[in-house]
Amino acid sequence: MAVKMPIKDALENLMKALAIAHGGNDGTIAPQRLEYHTKIGDTFSRSIIRGGSVNQECITVTRRMGAKPSAAQPDVILGGDIIMRLEGDAQPEAARTLNSILKDAYKELGISSAHPPSRRVAGADGLGRMLTFSLPDDSALAFAEYINGVAEKVRSNPALPAQCFAGTSLSLGEVNKIPGAKPFVLLSSKGEDWHFNLRIEGVPMPLAARLAPQLGKKLTDFEPSGKVSSRDRADMYDNGGVTMEIPLNHPDSSQMMTEIARYTSEKTRAAKKTPGGPESRINRTGWGAGLGGGGGS
After folding, report:
1. Per-residue pLDDT at 282 exceeds 80
2. If pLDDT is split at 50, 70 and 90, which confidence band does 113 have?
3. Between 25 and 104, whose confidence is greater?
4. Is the pTM of this model over 0.90?
């Protein structure tokens, strides 16, 4: 008798939807049709798809010790201990996205657990990630329904891959030229509207002053990012800065991204006019961090 696991099915559905949203593949798209490939999309794809079918090792659900099958549904595992394993180059970013969605589910459904969703380091190199959490039996079906709902909302927005690609490209290009700035491309929801935000910590005040009006805000609306390392190029950029989030579905998002590129270009040109300036170190220091959404764990 085959065992049914609605939680596992829902999480697999979510992983496939996130793969598509981040420019990856859920196993149904010809590789040559992937227009907006990113490393985080590749991480979701490699984690959930193996050999053209679902990777059964990606998600495991086990009954907690001492738990007994339901008399009414002996072939169904409801709650239990869940492990989600990731593969690929952008595991920290993928884990961050998954963890955010899972924690939102626990909060929305009022789920209480001694082991809520958390990210854990995996692999000897410390670059791997896995997610672990426990789910009570009486919350399992509501949790599965919630996760399937998120997957369908994400899958139903065809604009997401282009948003993710644009934000990732800007992060790895222009934003990474700002010493101390830390970019994150984050999947977010506002009501029914799922979209990507470009979150940048350490936005220099002159650049923030240019972007704030386009977001309909004042400089004082943004939180200081705290002390930001200047990466030995304080003469090129202002120290400190604020944290800003640019919704990549915003009607002026393209103009804001152009403004960021213009700012870094201006600063780079100014540095080149300074004898012995730091411009010769630009291409060999690797400004910024992260693949497809910033650094961090």
Report:
1. no
2. confident
3. 104
4. no
Spatial neighbors of 7 by CB under 8 A, at least 6 apart, are 61, 77, 78, 79, 80, 82, 135, 140, 143, 144, 147
DSSP per-residue letters across the chain: -PPB-HHHHHHHHHHHHHHHHTT---SSS-GGG--S--HHHHHHHHHHEETTEE-TTSEEEEPPTT----SS-TTB--SEEEEEE--STTHHHHHHHHHHHHHHHHHHHT---SS--EEEEESTTS-EEEEEEEE-GGGHHHHHHHHHHHHHHHHT-TTHHHHHHHHHHHHHTTGGGSTT-EEEEEEEEETTEEEEEEEEEEE-HHHHHHHGGGGT--GGGSPB--S---TT-TTTS-SS-EEEEEETTSTTHHHHHHHHHHHHHHHHHHHHTSTT-GGGGGGGT--S--SSS-S--
Q: By CB neighbour count within 10 A (0-12 exposed, 13-18 middle, 19+ buried), where does 56 fall?
A: exposed
C-alpha 70/C-alpha 78 separation (Å) is 9
Given the DSSP bridges, would you call strands 49-50 and 128-135 parallel, antiparallel or unpaired? unpaired
Per the CB < 8 A criterion, the answer to whether 38 and 67 are in contact is no
- The DSSP bridge partners found for residue 50 are 53
Q: How many angstroms separate the CA atoms of 30 and 21, rounded?
A: 16
pLDDT at 75: 61
Count the neighbouring beta carbons within 10 Å of the beta carbon of residue 191. 5
Beta strand pairing call for 118-122 and 128-135: antiparallel
Compute φ and ψ for 196, nearest 5 degrees. Answer: -100, 145
